[in-house]
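I would like you to sit down with the record closing this message with an eye to the fold:
=====
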Amino acid sequence: MTRSSQVNNADGMLLKNQIAILQHIQRGSCVTRTQLAEHTGLTRAGVSKITAQLIEAGIVEEAALLTGKKGRRSIGLSITEGGNKIIGVKLSRRNYSIGVFSFSGQLLEKTNKTISIDDADEEIFSQIQKIVLGYIKNDKQIVAVGVAVPGPFLINEKKILLISELDKKARRDLSVANMFNDDAFKDIPVIISHDANAGAMADWWFGIEKKDLQGCIVHFLVGEGVGAGVIYNGEIINGSQGTAAEIGHISIDYKGPDCVCGNCGCLEMYCSSLAFLRFCYNERKNHPDSKLNDYETLTTEIIFSLSDEGDTFAQECVKRAGFYIGLGCVNIINGFNPNTIFICNEMSKGGKLLLDEINNVVQSRILKEIRQNVSIELSTFDGDDILFGAAAVAIDFCLKRPEFLTQKNN
Protein backbone atom coordinates (compact mmCIF):
# COMPACT_ATOMS: atom_id res chain seq x y z
CA MET A 1 0.00 0.00 0.00
CA THR A 2 1.39 3.44 -0.93
CA ARG A 3 1.72 6.31 1.51
CA SER A 4 -0.89 8.22 -0.51
CA SER A 5 -3.49 5.45 -0.16
CA GLN A 6 -2.72 5.21 3.56
CA VAL A 7 -3.42 8.92 3.93
CA ASN A 8 -6.66 8.64 1.92
CA ASN A 9 -7.81 5.69 4.02
CA ALA A 10 -7.00 7.59 7.21
CA ASP A 11 -8.94 10.63 5.99
CA GLY A 12 -11.88 8.42 5.07
CA MET A 13 -11.88 6.75 8.47
CA LEU A 14 -11.70 10.12 10.23
CA LEU A 15 -14.67 11.40 8.23
CA LYS A 16 -16.63 8.22 8.99
CA ASN A 17 -15.94 8.63 12.71
CA GLN A 18 -16.86 12.33 12.59
CA ILE A 19 -20.17 11.48 10.96
CA ALA A 20 -20.92 8.77 13.54
CA ILE A 21 -20.22 11.17 16.39
CA LEU A 22 -22.27 14.00 14.85
CA GLN A 23 -25.25 11.70 14.27
CA HIS A 24 -25.23 10.56 17.89
CA ILE A 25 -24.89 14.13 19.17
CA GLN A 26 -27.74 15.26 16.90
CA ARG A 27 -30.09 12.45 17.88
CA GLY A 28 -29.19 12.55 21.57
CA SER A 29 -29.56 16.34 21.96
CA CYS A 30 -26.92 16.44 24.71
CA VAL A 31 -24.49 13.55 25.20
CA THR A 32 -21.18 13.04 26.97
CA ARG A 33 -17.91 11.90 25.46
CA THR A 34 -18.21 8.65 27.40
CA GLN A 35 -21.66 7.99 25.91
CA LEU A 36 -20.29 8.72 22.44
CA ALA A 37 -17.51 6.20 22.97
CA GLU A 38 -20.04 3.57 24.07
CA HIS A 39 -22.35 4.22 21.10
CA THR A 40 -19.69 4.46 18.38
CA GLY A 41 -17.18 1.89 19.62
CA LEU A 42 -14.38 4.47 19.46
CA THR A 43 -11.89 4.96 22.26
CA ARG A 44 -12.45 7.77 24.75
CA ALA A 45 -9.24 9.40 23.49
CA GLY A 46 -10.44 9.13 19.88
CA VAL A 47 -13.78 10.72 20.74
CA SER A 48 -12.06 13.53 22.64
CA LYS A 49 -9.78 14.29 19.69
CA ILE A 50 -12.60 14.40 17.14
CA THR A 51 -14.98 16.42 19.34
CA ALA A 52 -12.18 18.93 20.01
CA GLN A 53 -11.85 19.43 16.25
CA LEU A 54 -15.61 19.85 15.87
CA ILE A 55 -15.73 22.35 18.74
CA GLU A 56 -12.88 24.35 17.20
CA ALA A 57 -14.78 24.37 13.89
CA GLY A 58 -17.86 25.79 15.66
CA ILE A 59 -20.02 22.78 14.78
CA VAL A 60 -20.30 21.32 18.30
CA GLU A 61 -20.41 23.06 21.69
CA GLU A 62 -20.13 22.04 25.33
CA ALA A 63 -23.66 22.54 26.57
CA ALA A 64 -24.24 21.36 30.13
CA LEU A 65 -23.02 19.32 33.08
CA LEU A 66 -24.68 15.88 33.18
CA THR A 67 -24.76 13.33 35.98
CA GLY A 68 -23.65 9.82 34.99
CA LYS A 69 -24.69 6.38 36.29
CA LYS A 70 -22.34 6.57 39.29
CA GLY A 71 -23.09 10.18 40.09
CA ARG A 72 -20.07 11.48 38.22
CA ARG A 73 -20.46 14.82 36.50
CA SER A 74 -19.56 15.05 32.80
CA ILE A 75 -19.80 17.76 30.18
CA GLY A 76 -22.57 17.24 27.61
CA LEU A 77 -22.09 18.06 23.94
CA SER A 78 -24.68 19.35 21.48
CA ILE A 79 -24.82 20.81 17.96
CA THR A 80 -24.00 24.53 18.16
CA GLU A 81 -27.13 26.69 18.35
CA GLY A 82 -27.39 30.32 17.34
CA GLY A 83 -24.99 29.79 14.46
CA ASN A 84 -25.62 27.98 11.22
CA LYS A 85 -29.15 27.70 9.83
CA ILE A 86 -30.63 25.88 6.90
CA ILE A 87 -33.78 26.14 4.76
CA GLY A 88 -36.16 23.27 4.15
CA VAL A 89 -38.52 23.29 1.15
CA LYS A 90 -41.39 20.83 0.71
CA LEU A 91 -43.30 20.57 -2.57
CA SER A 92 -46.47 18.46 -2.67
CA ARG A 93 -49.53 18.13 -4.86
CA ARG A 94 -51.66 20.66 -2.98
CA ASN A 95 -49.17 23.03 -1.32
CA TYR A 96 -45.59 24.00 -0.74
CA SER A 97 -43.93 24.89 2.56
CA ILE A 98 -40.64 26.67 3.24
CA GLY A 99 -39.03 26.77 6.67
CA VAL A 100 -35.88 28.16 8.28
CA PHE A 101 -34.37 25.71 10.79
CA SER A 102 -31.61 25.56 13.35
CA PHE A 103 -29.18 22.65 13.11
CA SER A 104 -30.95 20.91 15.97
CA GLY A 105 -34.15 20.84 13.93
CA GLN A 106 -35.97 23.77 15.52
CA LEU A 107 -38.36 25.47 13.09
CA LEU A 108 -37.69 29.21 13.30
CA GLU A 109 -39.79 30.63 10.45
CA LYS A 110 -42.28 29.15 8.01
CA THR A 111 -44.14 30.08 4.83
CA ASN A 112 -46.96 27.89 3.50
CA LYS A 113 -49.02 28.29 0.33
CA THR A 114 -51.82 26.22 -1.21
CA ILE A 115 -51.52 25.38 -4.90
CA SER A 116 -53.95 24.04 -7.48
CA ILE A 117 -53.50 21.43 -10.19
CA ASP A 118 -54.25 24.27 -12.62
CA ASP A 119 -51.37 26.49 -11.39
CA ALA A 120 -48.53 26.68 -13.90
CA ASP A 121 -45.33 24.85 -12.95
CA GLU A 122 -43.20 27.90 -13.77
CA GLU A 123 -45.25 30.15 -11.50
CA ILE A 124 -45.01 27.73 -8.56
CA PHE A 125 -41.24 27.41 -8.97
CA SER A 126 -40.84 31.18 -9.32
CA GLN A 127 -42.73 31.75 -6.06
CA ILE A 128 -40.60 29.21 -4.20
CA GLN A 129 -37.37 30.67 -5.57
CA LYS A 130 -38.38 34.20 -4.57
CA ILE A 131 -39.22 33.20 -0.99
CA VAL A 132 -36.03 31.15 -0.52
CA LEU A 133 -33.84 33.95 -1.91
CA GLY A 134 -35.59 36.39 0.42
CA TYR A 135 -34.70 34.28 3.44
CA ILE A 136 -31.08 33.94 2.29
CA LYS A 137 -30.73 37.67 1.64
CA ASN A 138 -32.04 38.55 5.10
CA ASP A 139 -30.09 35.94 7.08
CA LYS A 140 -26.37 35.42 6.45
CA GLN A 141 -26.34 32.42 8.82
CA ILE A 142 -28.15 30.24 6.27
CA VAL A 143 -25.61 27.78 4.84
CA ALA A 144 -27.66 25.27 2.82
CA VAL A 145 -31.07 24.47 1.35
CA GLY A 146 -32.79 21.07 1.45
CA VAL A 147 -35.67 20.34 -0.91
CA ALA A 148 -38.17 17.45 -0.71
CA VAL A 149 -40.21 16.66 -3.83
CA PRO A 150 -42.71 13.99 -4.89
CA GLY A 151 -41.53 11.22 -7.19
CA PRO A 152 -40.56 9.38 -9.26
CA PHE A 153 -37.55 11.71 -9.00
CA LEU A 154 -34.31 11.33 -10.97
CA ILE A 155 -31.61 12.28 -8.48
CA ASN A 156 -28.81 12.97 -10.98
CA GLU A 157 -30.88 15.05 -13.40
CA LYS A 158 -32.78 16.71 -10.51
CA LYS A 159 -35.98 16.10 -12.43
CA ILE A 160 -39.43 15.04 -11.23
CA LEU A 161 -40.73 12.59 -13.82
CA LEU A 162 -44.28 12.59 -12.56
CA ILE A 163 -46.50 14.07 -9.85
CA SER A 164 -49.41 11.70 -10.19
CA GLU A 165 -53.08 12.37 -9.62
CA LEU A 166 -55.96 9.92 -9.38
CA ASP A 167 -57.15 11.13 -12.75
CA LYS A 168 -55.26 11.52 -16.01
CA LYS A 169 -54.13 15.07 -15.30
CA ALA A 170 -50.63 15.14 -13.82
CA ARG A 171 -47.48 17.23 -13.72
CA ARG A 172 -44.61 15.77 -15.73
CA ASP A 173 -40.89 16.35 -16.38
CA LEU A 174 -40.29 19.15 -13.88
CA SER A 175 -36.68 20.34 -13.66
CA VAL A 176 -36.14 21.23 -10.01
CA ALA A 177 -32.56 22.24 -10.81
CA ASN A 178 -33.93 25.17 -12.82
CA MET A 179 -35.62 26.48 -9.68
CA PHE A 180 -32.22 27.04 -8.08
CA ASN A 181 -30.08 28.23 -11.00
CA ASP A 182 -29.92 31.85 -9.88
CA ASP A 183 -26.48 33.36 -9.18
CA ALA A 184 -27.64 33.93 -5.61
CA PHE A 185 -27.40 30.17 -4.99
CA LYS A 186 -23.80 29.83 -6.19
CA ASP A 187 -22.42 29.82 -2.62
CA ILE A 188 -25.38 27.98 -1.06
CA PRO A 189 -25.57 24.21 -1.70
CA VAL A 190 -29.07 23.02 -2.64
CA ILE A 191 -29.69 19.34 -1.91
CA ILE A 192 -32.80 17.86 -3.54
CA SER A 193 -34.39 14.61 -2.35
CA HIS A 194 -37.43 12.43 -2.90
CA ASP A 195 -39.97 13.32 -0.20
CA ALA A 196 -40.10 9.82 1.31
CA ASN A 197 -36.30 9.75 1.52
CA ALA A 198 -36.40 13.15 3.20
CA GLY A 199 -38.90 11.81 5.73
CA ALA A 200 -36.56 8.91 6.43
CA MET A 201 -33.74 11.38 7.07
CA ALA A 202 -35.97 13.22 9.55
CA ASP A 203 -36.45 9.93 11.42
CA TRP A 204 -32.70 9.41 11.41
CA TRP A 205 -31.43 12.88 12.34
CA PHE A 206 -34.14 14.21 14.62
CA GLY A 207 -35.12 10.91 16.22
CA ILE A 208 -38.81 11.61 15.65
CA GLU A 209 -39.84 8.32 17.20
CA LYS A 210 -37.37 8.59 20.11
CA LYS A 211 -35.82 5.23 19.25
CA ASP A 212 -32.30 4.03 18.71
CA LEU A 213 -32.64 3.53 14.98
CA GLN A 214 -30.39 0.80 13.66
CA GLY A 215 -30.18 -1.53 10.69
CA CYS A 216 -32.80 -1.00 7.98
CA ILE A 217 -35.48 1.64 8.59
CA VAL A 218 -38.33 2.41 6.19
CA HIS A 219 -40.28 5.66 6.24
CA PHE A 220 -43.55 4.58 4.56
CA LEU A 221 -45.11 7.82 3.38
CA VAL A 222 -48.87 7.54 2.91
CA GLY A 223 -50.27 10.97 2.14
CA GLU A 224 -51.44 12.61 -1.08
CA GLY A 225 -48.94 10.28 -2.70
CA VAL A 226 -47.43 7.00 -1.53
CA GLY A 227 -43.72 6.25 -1.34
CA ALA A 228 -41.00 4.83 0.84
CA GLY A 229 -37.64 6.07 2.03
CA VAL A 230 -35.20 3.34 3.05
CA ILE A 231 -32.16 3.92 5.26
CA TYR A 232 -29.65 1.13 5.73
CA ASN A 233 -26.87 1.72 8.26
CA GLY A 234 -27.29 5.47 8.03
CA GLU A 235 -27.40 5.77 4.24
CA ILE A 236 -30.39 6.29 1.95
CA ILE A 237 -30.96 3.56 -0.64
CA ASN A 238 -31.50 5.54 -3.86
CA GLY A 239 -31.04 2.94 -6.58
CA SER A 240 -29.22 3.70 -9.83
CA GLN A 241 -31.33 6.79 -10.67
CA GLY A 242 -32.90 7.70 -7.35
CA THR A 243 -36.22 5.92 -7.85
CA ALA A 244 -35.71 2.99 -5.47
CA ALA A 245 -38.64 2.11 -3.18
CA GLU A 246 -41.33 3.74 -5.36
CA ILE A 247 -43.80 1.60 -3.46
CA GLY A 248 -46.74 3.73 -4.57
CA HIS A 249 -46.37 2.46 -8.13
CA ILE A 250 -46.11 -1.23 -7.29
CA SER A 251 -49.16 -2.96 -8.78
CA ILE A 252 -51.38 -4.77 -6.30
CA ASP A 253 -53.95 -5.64 -8.99
CA TYR A 254 -52.76 -6.31 -12.52
CA LYS A 255 -56.33 -5.82 -13.75
CA GLY A 256 -56.79 -2.64 -11.73
CA PRO A 257 -57.42 0.89 -13.03
CA ASP A 258 -54.81 2.54 -15.23
CA CYS A 259 -52.37 4.82 -13.42
CA VAL A 260 -50.81 7.90 -15.03
CA CYS A 261 -47.39 6.28 -14.47
CA GLY A 262 -48.22 3.69 -17.16
CA ASN A 263 -48.82 0.81 -14.74
CA CYS A 264 -52.23 -0.37 -13.56
CA GLY A 265 -53.60 -1.17 -10.13
CA CYS A 266 -50.91 0.90 -8.38
CA LEU A 267 -50.94 0.90 -4.57
CA GLU A 268 -51.22 4.70 -4.54
CA MET A 269 -54.62 4.45 -6.21
CA TYR A 270 -56.01 2.53 -3.23
CA CYS A 271 -54.55 4.00 -0.04
CA SER A 272 -53.29 7.54 -0.64
CA SER A 273 -55.20 10.20 1.28
CA LEU A 274 -56.71 11.37 -2.02
CA ALA A 275 -57.92 7.84 -2.83
CA PHE A 276 -59.18 7.45 0.74
CA LEU A 277 -61.22 10.65 0.51
CA ARG A 278 -62.59 9.77 -2.92
CA PHE A 279 -63.78 6.36 -1.72
CA CYS A 280 -65.52 7.92 1.29
CA TYR A 281 -67.18 10.58 -0.89
CA ASN A 282 -68.43 8.08 -3.43
CA GLU A 283 -69.66 5.46 -0.98
CA ARG A 284 -71.19 7.52 1.82
CA LYS A 285 -74.48 7.87 -0.04
CA ASN A 286 -74.90 4.12 0.40
CA HIS A 287 -74.66 4.60 4.16
CA PRO A 288 -77.32 7.23 5.00
CA ASP A 289 -76.91 6.71 8.75
CA SER A 290 -73.24 7.68 8.67
CA LYS A 291 -72.31 11.12 9.98
CA LEU A 292 -69.96 11.45 7.02
CA ASN A 293 -73.04 12.64 5.11
CA ASP A 294 -73.29 15.67 7.41
CA TYR A 295 -70.19 17.27 5.90
CA GLU A 296 -70.05 19.08 2.58
CA THR A 297 -66.28 18.66 2.53
CA LEU A 298 -64.53 15.65 4.02
CA THR A 299 -61.00 15.55 5.38
CA THR A 300 -58.94 12.66 6.70
CA GLU A 301 -59.18 14.23 10.17
CA ILE A 302 -62.99 14.21 10.07
CA ILE A 303 -63.15 10.58 8.95
CA PHE A 304 -60.63 9.41 11.56
CA SER A 305 -62.47 11.34 14.27
CA LEU A 306 -65.84 9.82 13.35
CA SER A 307 -64.23 6.40 13.25
CA ASP A 308 -62.98 6.91 16.80
CA GLU A 309 -66.51 7.93 17.81
CA GLY A 310 -67.89 4.63 16.50
CA ASP A 311 -69.33 5.62 13.10
CA THR A 312 -69.59 2.22 11.39
CA PHE A 313 -69.01 3.38 7.84
CA ALA A 314 -66.06 5.57 8.85
CA GLN A 315 -64.56 2.52 10.55
CA GLU A 316 -65.06 0.47 7.39
CA CYS A 317 -63.21 3.15 5.42
CA VAL A 318 -60.31 3.15 7.87
CA LYS A 319 -60.08 -0.66 7.85
CA ARG A 320 -60.13 -0.69 4.05
CA ALA A 321 -57.24 1.79 3.98
CA GLY A 322 -55.41 -0.31 6.57
CA PHE A 323 -55.79 -3.39 4.37
CA TYR A 324 -54.10 -1.70 1.40
CA ILE A 325 -51.40 -0.06 3.52
CA GLY A 326 -50.81 -3.53 4.94
CA LEU A 327 -50.24 -4.83 1.39
CA GLY A 328 -47.69 -2.06 0.96
CA CYS A 329 -45.94 -3.21 4.14
CA VAL A 330 -45.88 -6.78 2.83
CA ASN A 331 -44.09 -5.60 -0.31
CA ILE A 332 -41.68 -3.48 1.74
CA ILE A 333 -40.84 -6.39 4.06
CA ASN A 334 -40.29 -8.80 1.18
CA GLY A 335 -38.25 -6.23 -0.73
CA PHE A 336 -36.07 -4.71 2.02
CA ASN A 337 -36.25 -6.92 5.13
CA PRO A 338 -36.44 -3.88 7.47
CA ASN A 339 -36.09 -3.68 11.22
CA THR A 340 -38.66 -0.90 11.48
CA ILE A 341 -41.44 0.54 9.29
CA PHE A 342 -42.86 3.92 10.26
CA ILE A 343 -46.25 4.70 8.66
CA CYS A 344 -46.07 8.46 8.14
CA ASN A 345 -47.93 11.50 6.84
CA GLU A 346 -51.70 12.01 6.66
CA MET A 347 -52.85 8.40 6.83
CA SER A 348 -50.74 7.68 9.91
CA LYS A 349 -53.40 9.47 11.97
CA GLY A 350 -55.81 6.55 11.55
CA GLY A 351 -55.00 5.21 15.00
CA LYS A 352 -55.26 1.73 16.48
CA LEU A 353 -57.97 0.50 14.09
CA LEU A 354 -55.77 1.30 11.10
CA LEU A 355 -52.65 -0.24 12.67
CA ASP A 356 -54.49 -3.38 13.75
CA GLU A 357 -55.68 -3.96 10.18
CA ILE A 358 -52.17 -3.35 8.82
CA ASN A 359 -50.74 -5.90 11.26
CA ASN A 360 -53.48 -8.43 10.44
CA VAL A 361 -52.57 -8.27 6.75
CA VAL A 362 -48.85 -8.58 7.41
CA GLN A 363 -49.38 -11.39 9.93
CA SER A 364 -51.30 -13.44 7.37
CA ARG A 365 -48.93 -12.85 4.44
CA ILE A 366 -45.38 -12.84 5.84
CA LEU A 367 -43.44 -15.80 7.21
CA LYS A 368 -43.44 -15.80 11.01
CA GLU A 369 -39.63 -15.87 11.29
CA ILE A 370 -39.44 -12.67 9.22
CA ARG A 371 -42.51 -10.92 10.62
CA GLN A 372 -41.49 -11.22 14.26
CA ASN A 373 -38.36 -9.16 13.62
CA VAL A 374 -40.19 -6.22 12.04
CA SER A 375 -41.69 -3.39 14.07
CA ILE A 376 -44.55 -1.54 12.31
CA GLU A 377 -45.53 1.72 13.94
CA LEU A 378 -47.62 4.80 13.25
CA SER A 379 -45.56 7.98 13.30
CA THR A 380 -46.21 10.16 16.33
CA PHE A 381 -44.53 13.21 14.84
CA ASP A 382 -46.65 16.30 15.49
CA GLY A 383 -45.91 18.43 12.47
CA ASP A 384 -44.91 18.26 8.83
CA ASP A 385 -42.48 15.33 8.69
CA ILE A 386 -41.56 16.00 5.05
CA LEU A 387 -40.71 19.67 5.65
CA PHE A 388 -38.56 18.63 8.60
CA GLY A 389 -37.16 15.93 6.33
CA ALA A 390 -36.11 18.56 3.80
CA ALA A 391 -34.27 20.30 6.63
CA ALA A 392 -32.69 16.98 7.64
CA VAL A 393 -31.39 16.47 4.09
CA ALA A 394 -29.54 19.79 4.25
CA ILE A 395 -28.26 19.13 7.78
CA ASP A 396 -27.08 15.67 6.74
CA PHE A 397 -25.19 17.18 3.81
CA CYS A 398 -23.45 19.74 6.03
CA LEU A 399 -22.64 17.52 8.98
CA LYS A 400 -21.16 14.87 6.71
CA ARG A 401 -18.82 17.59 5.43
CA PRO A 402 -17.35 19.17 8.57
CA GLU A 403 -14.77 20.93 6.41
CA PHE A 404 -17.62 22.76 4.63
CA LEU A 405 -18.98 24.15 7.89
CA THR A 406 -15.48 25.02 9.10
CA GLN A 407 -15.02 27.03 5.91
CA LYS A 408 -18.37 28.78 6.39
CA ASN A 409 -17.65 29.64 10.01
CA ASN A 410 -14.21 31.16 9.32
User: Anything to note?
Assistant: The longest strand covers residues 60-67. The chain is about 40% helix and 20% strand.
